[in-house]
Amino acid sequence: MTKWKYSYRLFFPLVFYLGLGHLASAQLVRSQVTEWTEILDAGSLATPNEAGSDLNPTLETSSTYNQLDVNNVRNTQDWRITVSKLDVNWPAQFIPYVQRTSTGIPCGSCTGVDVGNSITGYLQITDLEQDFIAGQGAVSNIDLQFRINGITLALKADYYRTTIIFTLYGD
User: Is residue 12 a contact partner of residue 37, using CB atoms and an 8 Å limit?
Assistant: First the structure.
């Protein structure tokens, strides 16, 4: 039985360059986000500098692009984080992914991220909540990396946006 739940939202604006913007911070789960901007030019083509070539279909952040913290939980409190998305103006061809690239830093007597019960590698972010990270006690600096597949010149230039939602559950 869930005793508490908290969500925060991550916005992915996309206009044939990517910008990662506003993020609300929370008492129990917190993330620091910087802007992610990709300038797509002739070097972004699948065959660089070749006229008539489509864009490279994948954009990816660095492996330490964002960090997630789980704060203000008891040292022995189990928790899990789910991830989902809410499309605002987001084409079905754009498929966002997230992966945890570190286990972060657990508090002195905390277990921290439970690697055995956490997703390894990229997880496709869908409209439905999916388990992403599990752990126990406070943890800081869990590195996150994002990727978007399906970038193409076949889509009209527009301001594309989806909201990535991380939800923290505990007992």
Answer: no
DSSP state of 137: S
- Residue 26 has a pLDDT of 36
Q: What number is the average pLDDT over the span 156-162?
A: 76
3-state secondary structure (DSSP) of residue 11: strand
Q: How many CB atoms lie within 10 A of CB 108?
A: 7
Cα distance between residue 44 and residue 7, in whole Å: 34
What is the secondary structure of 62-122 as a DSSP string?
A: -TTSEEEEE-S--TT-EEEEEEEEEEEE--TT-EEEEEE----EE-TT--EE-GGGS--S-
Strands 160-170, 4-14: pairing is antiparallel
Q: Give the closest residue to 29 by CA, choosing from 71, 62, 67, 57.
A: 71
Name the 3-class secondary structure at 135. strand
